[in-house]
Backbone:
């Protein structure tokens, strides 16, 4: 019964859509540039007003203004160099989910908080995008997940099939 209700709702099939994928890739290219330039306002403008960004080892940033304020501070700490590789985009009407890989290189500057040092990271991410009333695709949820072990932590044992 649930299947019939879900299939019959007229919501449309989830699919990869080249136009949406291209818009997301453009957004990512802009984000790479804005991180490098230290432009927190532009980065926050790429997010929906009700967006959640979930940086590693930090409480979620809830709302565009919280995201803007976090990045205003973080961009003062040093140089942030990101690379994004969009692997797949599922689209259903005005919603899209991007799955990809990232590489991050952070070079600490003179204003870095005590205990923070330069680092490199790589991992995977999911971004939930929404087509806004102004015709722009904006991030609603951003969740990066590092592939690297936490420094000093034991690596988990690999399972064998």
Residues:
């Amino acid at each position: 019964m649930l299947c019939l209700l879900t299939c019959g709702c007229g919501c449309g099939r989830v699919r990869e859509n080249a136009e949406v994928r291209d818009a997301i890739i453009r957004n990512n290219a802009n984000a790479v540039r804005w991180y490098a330039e230290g432009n927190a306002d532009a980065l926050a403008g790429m997010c929906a007003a009700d967006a959640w960004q979930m940086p590693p080892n930090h409480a979620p940033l809830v709302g565009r203004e919280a995201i803007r304020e976090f990045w205003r501070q973080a961009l003062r700490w040093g140089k942030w160099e990101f690379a994004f590789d969009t692997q797949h985009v599922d689209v259903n009407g005005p919603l899209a989910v991007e799955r990809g890989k990232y590489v991050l290189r952070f070079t600490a500057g003179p204003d870095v908080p005590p205990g923070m040092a330069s680092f490199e990271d790589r991992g995977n991410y999911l971004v939930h995008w929404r087509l806004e009333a102004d015709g722009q695709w904006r991030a609603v949820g951003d969740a990066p997940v590092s592939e690297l072990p936490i420094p000093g932590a034991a690596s988990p044992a690999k399972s064998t099939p």
